[in-house]
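USER: Please consider what follows.
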Amino acid sequence: MAELLITGGAGFIGSHTCLVLLEAGHRLVILDNFSNSSAIASKRVAELAGVAAQERMLVLEGDIRNSNDLDRAFNSMENGIAAVVHFAGLKAVHESVQLPLKYWDVNVAGSRCLLEAMQRHNCRTIVFSSSATLYGYPEQIPIPETTRVQPINPYGQSKAAVEQLLDDLACSEPGWRIARLRYFNPVGAHSSGCIGEDPKGIPNNLFPFVSQVAVGRRAELQVFGADWPTPDGSGVRDYIHVMDLAEGHRAALEVLQREEPQLLTLNLGSGKGHSVLEVVQAFEKASGQPVPYSINQRRAGDAACSVADPRLAAERLGWYTQRSLSDMCRDSWNWQKANPQGYSQKQQ
C-alpha cells in the first residue's frame, strides 16, 4: 500500500484508475479542478470501492498550476506522497488547434508546476498520462515505441513537450522513477454503469458520440471520410477498454515501485484495429438501438489507421488488454443508458 496523488482523478480515465488503485489497497489524494469532470464521479468511485476503502480516499478541489493547491495535496497525507499518477490536462485535438495557448498553459506549464512540487516534497515517482497522438502520421503499423515522435497538433505537441521535460529531469537528477504511458483510444465504462465518460458539450471522440446518438441525445453520427485506404473506407483505430487502461496504470506503478529508478515509455493499446463503421455496427448490436450516420469529408489531421504495438507493455508490465470490442460497446451503453445526461442529471 502506498500514498498516491492522483491529478485529474475525477475525470474519465482518472476515476476508473482510482477505483482500481483503491481495490489494490492504496491511499489516494485526488486533486481536480472539475473543469472537464464531475465530483459525482469520485463519489461513485467511493461507493463502488466500499465503506472500508472510502477511508483511504480524499478529494481536493484545486489546480495543478497553483503551487498552494499542490502543497495542500502533498501535505494532506501524514506520511507524505510516495508517487503521483498524473492525468490532469486538456485533451481535445480540435480545440487545441483553436486554443493553443490554453493547452500549453494547462498541459505543459501545469506539469512543470507539478514536478516542481514533487521536488519540494521529495517525491520522485510519477506515472504520466501521455498519448499516441504524438506519433502524428505513423510511419508504420502497428506502431512501436521507437516510432518517431512527430505530433501534428498543439495537443500532441503539449504531450511531447511534457515527455521531453520528464526525460530531461531524469537525466539531470538521479532517483526518478518515471513511466510515460502512451494511450491509444480509451473507451467503455465500468461494468456497473455507475462511472463512465461524460464529455462537456459536443463529444470529440467516437464512442461518446455514438452513445449519445443511440440514447437519443443527438440525431446522427458524422463519419469523417469513407475513402480511406482501409477495408470499409472508414478510419481504423486501436480502442482500449478504460478498465484495461486503468489496470495498466496499476501495473506500471508496481513496476516503478519495485525496480530501480528508470524512465519507462510504453504504448497502452490492444494491438487490434477497428474501423468507425465496425464500431457503429457493434454498438447497434450491443444496444439494440439504431445509430444513424452520415458520411462527411475527411478532417484535416486525421490518419487512415493507428494501431499500437503493445508487446513492450506485455513484456515489462505483464499487462495486456482482456476486454473485446463487444465488451467496450456493452459497457459504454450500460453507462449511457443509466446516465442519459451523464453526471448532470437532477436526481444525482
User: Anything to note?
Assistant: The chain has twelve helices and 14 strands.
